[in-house]
Each structure stands twice: as structure tokens, then as C-alpha cells.
């Protein structure tokens, strides 16, 4: 949090004659004899405005209200907090002029992109346009970032209906229905914290065109086609409506053409991301892996059905009610060959060859109800969610071992989240509560070599975290204290049958619980462009473990984990920041169990039964430089971390199985990361250029077959992209993605390296307003085992004929040369080299219709 000695000015602006509220009135704060513009805002659709004004400016400036067709009004600043402003109409004579709209506008902390000026032929969703806007990036899983930092909210007409699942908006809202995209820098989503709590993250707000409001809009798509293996389909219907009192988005999608529509359901809600690590783990590896460096739609052999419905209701008392339902059935097939090389030092190694064919099915349902009251002095938000997931996977395995595997996990989760804040003058009180119950039964059945092996794991967990805080503003300083109570209880039973080995613990019934009491004093200081936050969390943990066949174990721990964050905006273009923390971590409860669990057909993992606390220290620093009006953004960041972990992974090979366990031996992990990004837009040929670079180094060690293996993994990536229109009838998009890795074992005793290089070129020809066609080529050059280079060349062709702006026919030919395999080599920080060969989608032919309404 960051603090300022401010007071709030709020009110409405109306027409003096008919008393109707006015939307879009400019409210500008001028100070000093030179009449310097300090802040500005505009009135909302209800004609209201609010602005935080430094107390020191009282009597030294004025607010100016201006609106086309009305007399300009000025009013001196005083301590009056509620203003009702009435503007008088005036006659205007407007000369004929030619106005060229700017692509980017800046108003205070809000940057506005004109969607029409960033759109190009072939764009169909607002996500297509967002990827072209300087400063905005969308990664492979759908997360949106602004100048390298993930956003904290995605609004549609100032409302957060989707609650972090904004992939539904970026992929389904037509860019033709959106007038502008607003970047709300340093966005504070809780209104009661405006002016006293600083946010590092931005938000995105979609401003729809007037014609897209108050009526149903959407898209319909129906494609059919064929491949050498099966008939193809891609069908979707999207129905949306947005108005002042209600918002609704409903989708139905199904396809078997490799489109991973489940990415739309990824949630980037900050609380959901924070709480993800508190959920039960999948001990049995049911989820199928996917290839690195290759687009998901190139390899996914799927049959997916997905239905979503999201609704937002705005009540007259200012309360929002949100109801979200999601249902999905996803099935995919995969075929791959994997060679895993395990290094042992002294130029020794052993390998494992696998040939796998698998069928994977996932069925899921989730329902969420949220109520939110977000007012300038009060916030009450409660969220209740039920989610169910069933995952089945069947594998036919060849190679060193031949077997048939069947896996299942079935997660059931009930969650409730509450947040309450009350602000009164310079004081505020907060309360938050998070509670979740989860059951996640899992089983693995293996049949081969004339024997059957079965593993069952049945964990259940109840977790709760509660915080109570109080804070006060004193000048330029805010002091606040937060008390915390956290509790967890987990019950787990494990059974392993069919393996005859006296060293295996094949049965366990256990319970584990802990309680945490914490007090966090925090001091925040802000003066002008400088902000700093210092916190001293003080934690006490009390653990209790019971294995029903042995005695109970108890453990307690006390820790202080200081942290510091500072930033300095030494100009409107430059920002320098640094953060650091020292932390004694809680016990990893997911690893705490006394048994051997067969996580895959070949790997037995033994848990920890000693209470161990890792210690970490992290320092991060970065610098940002941006000129929004010139469409230029850049960021460079450095991070260094040190971890001391009191246990070490140990692996031994015996009778075809990898026995993994943890030894009580301290190890140090050092990690260094350097990353940067740059983006630039220009009116010349409507060009957008972006560059992402990164380098990391990870040093660690482990034991393998009683030998110490020190390993150093270094990774480098480089990703430039350019989008250019050299003429009105042609658009060119080029991207390069280079990733290199090197693994050093025992200080240069053994060294391996590999790289993947992907180049993508899309050329879109637009010979007329009715017709355009595209050629897309992807070239892959991957260094694989023994230093060999594997080259791949994939080509797609598409043609679109537009009968009108709302109706078009599409023809697509995907993977023209019918490439069927993709190979690459990668490394892990467990001293391994992995050579993989995947079967990818064959050539596809599709034809269909696309309609917007």
C-alpha cells in the first residue's frame, strides 16, 4: 500500500435547463499562477465524477468543467466534498474541418487505444487486435500483460463480469463491436482504497460502440471438413448483451480440429492464482504432456464440447450479482516417443525408452455466484464456487517396458471467499476469509509382464485463511496491522498392491494438520514520485501428524519474513523499482506422507515425514521506459534468488523402477533471471514491432544411485515479432522464437546443449473489399540428440469471401504438406536430457460460414 494525504471530491454534472445528467464532461484540476493541469477525469454514464485532491492544494487551484455545446464553468477548490454542477447551453458555429483521430490518447492514468485504427483485415475478435497494440501482450495460455506485468482486471463497460476468465472476452467479442480499449494504469479495483492504496498493475476496459449496447450481439460459426483420419467439424455460437443494468455472455463450442477452447476458461483472478497452491495435488500424473515450441493446435487430436454462461446483474443499491456456469467434455488422443537420459556423473548415464499411445478424457463442471458492493467508503465481496472434475487416461506403453495403464482422478471442490472493508476518514478496517474443502481420489492400474499393479490415493482437505486488519493515515505515512489465522486438516489413505519388494511402504493412513498465527505490521510512505512499503510478517506454526499405525508427531516453528518494495517515478516516462524479501517457508504439506506412491508406471515417490522448512531470499529490480503517445514501451528486469532446502531428491534404479525419495541433506539452489520486453508502433505502414528476451541460470544438486549430481541449467530465449502493411492490399506478419538450453554436470564433467528455432510468416492478400486470402508458413529447426538438426516445414492456406460485413465464407487448408512428426530435445534441472518425438495433426481441409450479428 502507498499513502497520500488526500480528500475526495465527488458530484454530478447536469444540464441547467432540463436537469438531465451529462456524460463525458471534462473535469480538469488546475493549480498555481501558471494554471498547470494536474489531474483530469470525465463524467460517467450517470453524469457523476470523483477525484482525489491533495489537501495542500485547498485554496490554490480550481476545477474546470467543459463540454461541447455548453458554457465552461470554473469552481475554486475548497473542502466541500459533494458538488452538484449545472452547465448552461450555448450556441456554436462549427466550421468545416478535417479531423484525424489519434490512435492513442492519454488522460491522466488512462491510455485509450482506438480499436478501428489498430484493426486489420482478417481480425475477428478483440483479442486479434489486442495482440497488435503496443504495450499489450497475450501469452500462450491467454493471460494478458501490460508492459510485462499481468493485468489485475478485465472490464467490459466498467464491469468485471468474467472475474478473471477474460479469455472468453478476448476470443469471442468481435473487434467491430468495440470502440476503444482503455488501459487503466496503477488500477485499484477497490474504490474504498483509492488514494491510500497503490497498485502496480493495470486493468483493461473495453468500451463498446453504441450500436453494440442494449441489444443481443454475437457470432455463429459452422465449419465442416475432412482429414486422412476422420471427418472434421468446428461449430460455435456466442450470444452477448451489455447494458447499464445487466450483462450476459453465453457460448456453445465444439470442434475436433485441434482448437484448445479450454484455454478460454483459464482464470487469472489474483485470489484464484494465489490460492491455487493451497489445493490438493495430483499425485498420479493423469494430465497428458504436450510438446514444447509447437502451437497446441498443431498437435491436439481432440473432440471437445463446451458450454458457458456468465451473467451480471446491477441492483439499484449499487450491488452487483454475478452468476457463472461452465460445463466441458474434452477428449484427446496422443502418440509420442520419449528417450530420457539420466546423468550420474563421471560420464555415466542410463536411459529409458518409451513409446506411448494414450486416450485422455476430462469432464468438468463449475458454478460460481459472486455478490459485490464496491463503494467509495465500503466494500463487501463474497464468492461461492463449486467445481467438479473427472479425468481418465488410458495408455498403451511400449519400449523398455510393455504395459497397459489406466488412470483416474476425480476432484470435488467447494470454496467460499469473503472480503469486507470499511473506511472512515483516515482509518480503515479490513476482514477477509477463504475456506475450501476438496476431495481428490486418484488411482492407477497397470497390467503387464504377467502381473497387475494398482495404486490408490484418497486425499481430503479442509483449508481456511482469515485476516483482520486495521490501518491509519498519518500525513504521508500509512501504518497498518494485519492479524492472521490459518488452519488446514488433511486426511489421506494410500494403497499399493502387486509389487513385491520388502523396502516398499505400500500402505498408509495418515492425517496432517497445522495452525498458523501471524501478525504483520506494515509501514508505507509516499511523497511525490517515490513510494515504499516495508512489512514484517511474524508467523507461528503448529503442526500435528498422525500415521494410524505409528505414534503422532508434533512440531512448531516461529519465523519473521521481512519484505521491502520501493519505486521511483522520476519522470512521466521512467520508473525504477526494487523489491526484496527473506522468507522461512511453511512445511510442504503436499510432500508430507509416509508411503511410496506409484506416480507413473515406472516411478515410486516416497514422501517426507520430517518437518522441514526451506529458507529463501529474493531480490528483484527493474526499470521501465514508455512514451504512450508514440506507442513505445520497454522494460528490463533482473532477479536473483537463493534457497536453502533441508532435503535433497535421491533417485535409485531397481528392477525397472525409479525409486525417488528425499534425504535430509541441506542443498542450496541459486537462480538468476534477466528478462526484457520492447514494443513500438508507428503510422508508417501501420507497423507494430515487439521483442521479448530472457536468460536464466539455475544451480542445484541431487543424488542418483548414491552419487552426488551437481547440475547447472542455463536457458535463453529470443522472440521478435513484426506486423506491417506495406500496401493497402497486403499484410505481413513475421515472428521468430528461439530457445536454447545447456546443462552442465559436476562442473564441466559433462555438458549438453540444444536449441529450438521457430519462424512464422503470414502473408495476407486483400485484392478487394470482398475477398482476401492468406498463406502461413512455419519453419522449425530443432537440435535433437547427437547434435543432429531436425527441420520441419508447415504451411496453411485460407481464403475468405465476404458477402457482407456480417456474413462470410471461409476455406482453409491446414498442414498442406501433411507433416506428421515433430521432434525436439530439452533438459530439466534434475540432471536429465529428454528427447521427444510427437505425432502431430495431419492435413486438414475445412469449409464453412462465419456470421456476426
Automatic annotation (TrEMBL):
Record key words, sorted: Cell outer membrane, Membrane
Annotated localization: Cell outer membrane
Keyword Membrane: yes
Example of a GO cellular component annotation carried by this entry: cell outer membrane
Name of this protein: Cna B-type domain protein
Record flagged with keyword NADP: no
Domain of life: Bacteria
Chief location of this protein within or outside the cell: membrane
Amino acid at each position: 500500500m502507498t499513502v497520500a494525504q488526500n480528500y475526495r471530491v465527488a458530484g454530478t454534472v447536469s444540464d441547467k435547463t432540463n436537469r438531465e445528467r451529462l456524460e463525458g464532461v471534462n473535469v480538469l484540476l488546475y493549480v498555481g499562477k501558471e494554471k498547470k493541469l494536474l489531474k483530469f477525469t470525465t463524467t460517467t454514464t450517470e453524469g457523476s465524477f470523483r477525484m482525489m485532491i491533495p489537501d495542500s492544494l485547498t485554496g490554490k487551484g480550481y476545477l474546470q468543467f467543459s463540454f461541447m455545446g455548453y458554457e465552461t464553468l470554473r469552481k475554486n477548490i475548497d473542502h466541500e466534498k459533494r458538488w452538484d454542477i449545472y452547465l448552461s447551453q450555448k450556441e456554436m458555429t462549427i466550421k468545416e474541418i478535417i479531423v484525424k483521430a489519434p490512435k492513442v490518447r492519454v488522460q491522466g492514468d488512462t491510455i485509450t487505444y482506438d480499436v478501428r485504427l489498430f484493426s486489420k483485415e482478417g481480425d475477428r475478435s478483440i483479442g486479434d487486435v489486442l495482440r497488435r497494440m503496443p504495450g499489450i501482450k497475450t501469452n500462450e495460455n491467454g493471460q494478458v500483460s501490460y508492459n510485462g506485468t499481468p493485468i489485475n482486471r478485465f472490464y467490459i463497460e466498467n464491469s468485471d463480469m468474467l472475474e478473471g476468465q477474460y479469455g472468453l472476452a478476448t476470443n469471442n467479442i468481435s473487434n467491430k463491436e468495440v470502440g476503444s480499449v482503455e488501459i487503466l494504469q496503477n488500477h485499484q479495483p477497490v474504490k474504498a482504497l483509492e488514494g491510500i492504496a497503490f497498485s502496480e498493475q493495470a486493468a483493461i476496459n473495453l468500451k463498446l460502440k453504441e450500436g453494440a449496447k442494449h441489444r443481443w450481439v454475437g457470432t455463429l460459426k459452422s465449419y465442416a471438413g475432412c482429414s486422412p483420419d476422420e471427418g472434421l467439424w468446428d461449430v460455435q455460437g456466442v450470444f452477448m448483451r451489455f447494458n447499464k443494468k445487466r450483462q450476459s455472455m453465453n457460448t456453445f463450442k465444439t470442434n475436433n480440429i485441434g482448437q484448445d477452447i479450454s484455454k478460454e476458461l483459464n482464470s487469472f483472478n489474483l485470489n484464484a492464482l494465489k490460492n491455487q497452491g493451497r489445493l490438493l495435488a495430483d499425485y498420479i500424473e493423469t494430465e497428458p504432456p504436450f510438446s514444447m515450441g509447437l502451437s497446441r493446435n498443431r498437435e491436439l487430436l481432440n473432440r471437445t464440447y463446451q458450454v458457458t454462461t456468465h451473467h451480471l446483474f446491477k441492483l439499484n443499491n449499487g450491488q452487483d450479482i454475478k452468476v457463472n456456469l461452465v460445463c466441458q467434455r474434452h477428449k484427446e488422443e496422443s502418440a509420442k516417443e520419449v528417450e530420457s537420459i539420466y546423468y550420474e556423473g563421471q560420464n555415466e548415464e542410463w536411459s529409458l525408452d518409451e513409446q506411448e499411445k494414450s486416450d485422455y478424457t476430462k469432464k468438468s463442471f463449475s458454478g460460481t455466484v459472486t455478490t459485490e458492493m464496491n463503494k467509495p467508503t465500503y466494500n463487501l465481496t463474497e464468492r461461492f464456487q463449486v467445481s467438479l472434475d473427472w479425468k481418465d487416461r488410458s495408455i498403451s506403453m511400449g519400449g523398455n517396458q510393455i504395459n497397459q495403464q489406466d488412470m483416474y482422478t476425480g476432484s470435488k471442490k467447494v470454496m467460499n471467499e469473503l472480503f469486507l472493508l470499511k473506511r472512515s476518514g483516515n482509518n480503515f478496517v479490513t476482514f477477509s476469509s477463504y475456506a475450501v474443502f476438496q476431495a481428490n481420489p486418484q488411482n492407477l492400474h497397470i497390467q503387464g509382464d504377467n502381473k497387475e499393479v494398482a495404486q490408490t490415493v484418497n486425499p481430503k482437505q479442509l483449508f481456511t485463511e482469515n485476516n483482520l486488519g486495521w490501518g491509519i493515515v498519518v500525513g504521508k505515512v500509512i501504518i497498518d496491522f494485519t492479524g492472521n489465522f490459518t488452519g488446514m486438516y488433511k486426511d489421506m489413505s494410500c494403497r499399493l498392491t502387486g509389487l513385491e519388494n520388502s523396502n516398499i511402504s505400500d500402505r498408509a493412513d495418515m492425517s496432517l494438520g497445522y495452525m498458523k498465527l501471524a501478525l504483520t505490521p506494515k509501514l508505507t510512505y509516499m511523497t511525490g514520485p517515490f513510494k515504499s512499503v516495508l512489512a514484517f510478517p511474524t508467523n507461528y506454526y503448529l503442526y500435528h501428524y498422525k500415521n494410524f499405525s505409528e505414534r503422532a508427531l508434533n512440531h512448531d516453528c516461529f519465523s519473521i519474513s521481512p519484505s521491502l518494495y520501493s519505486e521511483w517515478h522520476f519522470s512521466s516516462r521512467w520508473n525504477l523499482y526494487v523489491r526484496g524479501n527473506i522468507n522461512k517457508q511453511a512445511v510442504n504439506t503436499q510432500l508430507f506422507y509416509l508411503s511410496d506412491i506409484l506416480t507413473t508406471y515406472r516411478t515410486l515417490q516416497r514422501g517426507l515425514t520430517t518437518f522441514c522448512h526451506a529458507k529463501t531470499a529474493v531480490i528483484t529490480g527493474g526499470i521501465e521506459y514508455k512514451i504512450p503517445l508514440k506507442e513505445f514501451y520497454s522494460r528490463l528486469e533482473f532477479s536473483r534468488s537463493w534457497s536453502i532446502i533441508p532435503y535433497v531428491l535421491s533417485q535409485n534404479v531397481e528392477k525397472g523402477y525409479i525409486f525417488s525419495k528425499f534425504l535430509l541433506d541441506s542443498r542450496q539452489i541459486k537462480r538468476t533471471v534477466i528478462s526484457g520486453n520492447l514494443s513500438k508502433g508507428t503510422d508508417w505502414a501501420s507497423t507494430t514491432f515487439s521483442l521479448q528476451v530472457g536468460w536464466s541460470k539455475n544451480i542445484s544438486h541431487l543424488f542418483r544411485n548414491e552419487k552426488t549430481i551437481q547440475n547447472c541449467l542455463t536457458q535463453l530465449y529470443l522472440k521478435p515479432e513484426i506486423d506491417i502493411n506495406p500496401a493497402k492490399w497486403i499484410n505481413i506478419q513475421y515472428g521468430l522464437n528461439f530457445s536454447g538450453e545447456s546443462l552442465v554436470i559436476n562442473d564441466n564433467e559433462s555438458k549438453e546443449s540444444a536449441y529450438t528455432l521457430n519462424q512464422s510468416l503470414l502473408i495476407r492478400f486483400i485484392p478487394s473489399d470482398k475477398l482476401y486470402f492468406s498463406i502461413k508458413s512455419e519453419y522449425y529447426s530443432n537440435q535433437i540428440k547427437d547434435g543432429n538438426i531436425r527441420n520441419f516445414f508447415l504451411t496453411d492456406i485460407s481464403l475468405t469471401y465476404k458477402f457482407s460485413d456480417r456474413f462470410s465464407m471461409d476455406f482453409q487448408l491446414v498442414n498442406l504438406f501433411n507433416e506428421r512428426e515433430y521432434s525436439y530435445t530439452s533438459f530439466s534441472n534434475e540432471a536429465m536430457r529428454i528427447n521427444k518425438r510427437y505425432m502431430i495433426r495431419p492435413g486438414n481441409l475445412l469449409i464453412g460460414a462465419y456470421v456476426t450479428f
